[in-house]
């Protein structure tokens, strides 16, 4: 899965402390010399965080502001402020010079840089025990309190966030008889940049503005780098504000920016919950929902964090359910960590056709096509899968065709977490509704599946799939299959991907990792397979191509028929390039538990492995990819103890 990378930079502040006098040589030899000069080179990307080659200091983000740099010198115990200097460098300047007197001893240098009003004039002010400090009026951050830079506080936040950029540094040093040389410090961004984006570009078009409310950290101690204190922040973002409506791509998904802001942050932490209230455009005729983004978005100083979700829903009843994807990547001198928060699910299903359609959203392509298969829906949130279940189970037709949602094409655009909530297999609700379309996982994973449901005869991620043009491909499922079975059924079919498949349905380049368990109360037949429970009906089977399963437990009570790939298969079933992990009670000489009438199936390059090392063996990977000519993804050996992963083929 291609990541949308969020870049950050370490900005170096190189301070050269030298003795200053008319004759430098004499000054270096003068034991009573108190003059100290610090020359600071500020970061070239101060305004726009992109690598640039620029000698001059950066200009302010607009003509209403100018750059300011503050230097404080504290004693060794950080209890007494000795020196405070503020400088607003002239346009085009290449460095900032601070010059002052200092006795020999141990000290701490604290530095801060931010923006102030363009007309700000230095005036004598008492700060932290020093009188007559030449101070420029603070605009975004308060720096003139009783403890100076040990307590920098947020004064205001604005929708034009670039003005709130700020940097800081702290450096202990020793002033001896002669001048110091080559004292270096690292100036670090004090803020994180947080961007919230909407995945549904269709629903974004309904939105005129959005009001955000959340708590922010407010106070930075430059001497320790610790940010503390909280205050609530609220603002309305609309056209012209903070990039509202700008295009951004996150995890290969085109999104629309709702807002961006700079936020004081520690080296590691998380955001509290964020509430959003949307206002619809008059012409849309829509009522937009309120949502709350749950607490937990990673927020790290000097990082840019892009968070995207399906946030805007046109529905009558308010909903606080929200799914978020957050991806963070960083580029330091060495690679930093990458974080991902997968979309999670609250376990709720739609209660009406209207609500289900709102959750699903409109087609990403083919909205006016006459064939159901040409209606393509992009899945970015768990609740869309819940909506698919509802729409299929109720045989709901799409808007411009008589074909139902059973026949459409669905493309998974991100990993999804079902959060261990009870999952009723897609297509099952009192009666079975076959899936007749295309489900393309695009190499992504649905994890946390807990396929349950009462009185279910076929269970898995899907209940049943049918049709020669029906295909489920490029999909990984992790979780468990544990259907609730009653005596109403003469057999029960359990599979990691699908309970039952027939009439030529194909499952290709899919995997399942988890457990399968079921009990038939009347000792009836229970089919269990890592990919599918039952394949085919008399005279009409299916295909399973290049799949693997890791079933760590298969507990079937009744007349149990187990298989590493499929439980029971009819003649003419094709299983090729499939592998399964060895498990007691599962045959190791066939991918199937039982084949109808002992007949044959079309097999090739199937086999089993004992663990992840065996699964990642070159011969296994090569065998699973043998039949992949018609598919866009292929298997690649996993890393760090994981099983094989799907990667998109490169185009030569």
Count of discrete domains: 3
Q: Point out poorly predicted stretches.
A: 1-32, 43-56, 316-343
Gross morphology is elongated
What's the rounded overall pLDDT mean? 80
**What is the count of DSSP helices, taking H or I runs of 4+ residues?**
6
Tell me about the largest β-sheet. Answer: 13 strands, parallel
Q: Pairing-aware structural class of the strands and helices?
A: mainly beta
Helix content: under 10%
Give the percentage of residues in beta strands.
Answer: 35-45%
* N-end to C-end Cα span: 19 Å
Taking Cα atoms only, what radius of gyration do you get, to the nearest Å?
31 Å
Q: What's the number of extended β-strand segments?
A: 49
Domain DUF6562: 36-205
InterPro entries: DUF6562 (IPR046692)
Keywords: Signal
Signal peptide: 1-23
Provide key terms for this protein:
single chain, 652 residues, mainly beta, 3 domains, 13-stranded parallel sheet, six-stranded antiparallel sheet, 44% strand, disordered N terminus, signal, DUF6562 domain-containing protein
Question: In words, what does this structure look like?
Answer:
It comes from Bacteroides xylanisolvens. It holds the Pfam family DUF6562. This is DUF6562 domain-containing protein. The chain is mainly β. It has 3 domains: 179 residues, no CATH class; 151 residues, Immunoglobulin-like, CATH 2.60.40; 231 residues, no CATH class. It is 6% helix and 44% strand. The protein contains 6 helices and 49 strands. The strands form 10 sheets. Strands 24, 25, 26, 27, 30, 33, 36, 39, 40, 43, 44, 46 and 47 form a 13-stranded parallel sheet that branches. It has a 6-stranded antiparallel sheet with strand order 1-13-12-7-4-5, with no helix packed on it. A hairpin with an 8-residue loop joins strand 48 and strand 49.
